[in-house]
Structures are given as C-alpha cells and as structure tokens.
Write a structure and sequence with these properties.
Elements (H helix, E strand, L loop, with lengths): L1 H9 L9 E3 L6 E6 L7 E6 L5 E5 L4 E4 L7 E2 L8 E6 L5 E5 L4 E4 L7 E2 L8 E5 L6 E5 L4 E4 L7 E3 L7 E6 L5 E5 L3 E5 L7 E5 L5 E6 L5 E5 L4 E4 L7 E2 L14 E6 L5 E5 L3 E5 L7 E5 L5 E8 L2 E6 L4 E6 L2
Length: 321
C-alpha cells in the first residue's frame, strides 16, 4: 500500500515497458500502453463506450479521448487539486470529484467543467448514480453525500463512522454499499436514511468495490485483501489472494470490475492484473502489465478495457477469449 498511502496522505487521508505485452504461458490478456503526454497520476477512469473515455488525476488533470485512447487530449478542469474519480451517466453529463471537497460537473461531454458546492472540504473518493436523479459521493472522515435532484444540491447523510470511505456502489435507489479504511463496510436499504455497519473486514483498507448484481459483490484492498458478499453486503467471505507466481509480498489490490456473472478483473500495485472466470472462486495471476501501480479500471463492454495509473500511464487491455 506504500504508493497509495503516500498519495492519500497528500490529499489528507490522515485527512519502460514495451508498447505491447502478453504472456505465452498465461494468455488471458494482452496490453498496449497509450500515449497521454502527461506525468500525472491518473486515479479515476471511465470509458462510456469503446471510443469515448475520460481519466482524471493529480494537479487537476482531466484527459479525454474520442477514439479509444489512440489520442488523449487535456481538458481544462478549472482546478489544480487532486481529482480522484470520474463518472458519466451518458455521453454528456458527468462529474469529477477530488480533494478539498471538490465536485465539478459537465454537461458537454467533459469539454468544460463548473464547480458544485457540497459543503465539505474533506477529500472525496467514490461516486455512484443508480439513476439520473439520485447520486452518492463518499470520502474522508466517513463523509457520505446524497443528491436527489441530479447533482444540483448535495446533503450529508449520517454514516456513524470516522473511517475514510473509498468506494461506493448503489444497485438501486434504495440499496447501497460503501467500503473504506480499517475494514469498514456500510450498507443501506433505504436510500441512505440509515447506514448499518457490517463489522470490520479484517481491519484492512478497502479501495475498490463492485457488484455484478444486487446480491453478489466484491471488495478489494491492501495486502491482497479480497472479500465476497452474496447477500448484498450483509455478510462477507474472506477470499484474500496470497502471493502467486511472481510476488514476494501480497499485492495491494486497488480496483475490481466484473464484465458478467463469472468474469472479473482486478488491478493493483506494480501493474499487477488478476482474472477470474468462475465468479471469483479462483483467481488467475495475469502478471504485471506496467511498472507502476494501477488505480483505474474501466470496461465499457466485455471485450474492451483500459487501466490507468502513475506517471500518466494508460494501458489498453485486450482480453483473450
């Protein structure tokens, strides 16, 4: 967790690879590095289609592509703070969030951005919109923000925790889960009117969260931490990934995504990638695709994927079916 923690401290938490790589002995994936012309650490990444995507990161960096990452252009964000996440509901309306309580919104596909006041200065890390009107943002000091008017106004919800919350998923306007530091996992069944703590998941720091449906979900974190729920976040099973072929210590896992009920992917420190084809009961180490930690992971569909990370790194992932 070294690199992530250094980055988190910077935003207040305590507030040459070849162009293409593949593995003959483990051919689940090939990867190609894309040219971004930036050295920013790219934390947030979203491809809305295989052509249209955005990434955000340090120094207020926002980059956009219209051609699947063949070309990335810098977009003026209007801020120099660390941006941690990006979310577009469609090809036009989107949000970026970051340190100092930063929330900015765009209505023109990310060409321009305007600030949104949310009434906090804590760092913000996770964002989810299960519908065009209802959205949630989570961040430091247990912060949970909710909008019921499409992001025009935001109001704090009581989380009853001081732990930093790094990721949030809502499978409907009523059911949501958020995870974060010291193994924190919170669940709501009433749109955030109440949040219930589901115990501590081993005391690890959980950075990523994904649900493949309303019941089955995954949380990932430092030192190979991997937890599965089959009841919407009420109970969690420890499926931590140990050292496999190429590591000397368990890998910090930073982002998880599923492209269907059975196929899922994880990225983490040292450019490591893991894949499951059986719903997460077993995970295959696909190897390291970059010499940097990877923080962002986006699948606009099952056949196209990108990962982002330190030193302006964006890797196009090509799953081999």
């Amino acid at each position: 967790m070294k690199r992530w923690m250094r980055l988190a401290v910077a935003v207040g938490l305590a507030t040459a690879w070849p162009c293409a790589v593949s593995w003959a002995g483990n051919p689940v994936l090939s990867a190609e590095r894309q040219h971004t012309k930036t050295e920013a650490t790219l934390l947030g990444l979203q491809f809305y289609t295989p052509q249209l995507g955005w990434t955000v990161g340090s120094g207020g960096a926002i980059l956009k592509t219209l051609d699947g990452g063949k070309h990335w252009k810098k977009v003026t964000s209007g801020t120099s703070v660390l941006l941690t996440n990006v979310l577009f509901l469609d090809g036009k309306r989107g949000w970026v969030i970051g340190s100092n309580g930063t929330v900015r919104t765009s209505t023109d596909a990310g060409e321009s951005w305007k600030p949104v006041a949310v009434g906090t200065e804590v760092p913000l890390y996770g964002i989810a919109f299960p519908s065009p009107t209802h959205g949630w943002i989570v961040g430091g000091n247990g912060m949970i923000l909710h909008t019921a008017d499409g992001g025009e106004t935001w109001h704090e919800q009581a989380s009853h925790t001081n732990a930093s919350l790094y990721a949030v998923v809502f499978t409907s306007e009523e059911h949501g889960v958020t995870v974060g530091a010291v193994g924190t996992a919170l669940v709501t069944r009433d749109g955030g009117k109440t949040w219930a703590t589901q115990g501590s998941l081993g005391g690890v720091t959980l950075f990523g969260l994904e649900f493949s449906d309303s019941l089955i979900g995954w949380a990932v974190g430092n030192a190979g931490a991997l937890f599965q729920t089959t009841d919407g976040g009420l109970h969690w099973t420890d499926r931590t990934i140990p050292c496999l072929q190429t590591c000397t210590k368990p890998t910090d896992l930073l982002r998880v995504r599923f492209t269907g009920p059975r196929v899922g992917w994880i990225v983490g420190e040292r450019g490591m990638v893991y894949r499951t084809g059986d719903g997460g009961f077993t995970w295959q180490e696909a190897g390291s695709i970059a010499d940097v930690s990877l923080f962002g992971l986006s699948f606009p569909d099952a056949g196209h994927a990108w990962a982002s990370g330190e030193r302006g790194t964006i890797m196009q992932l090509k799953p081999n079916h």
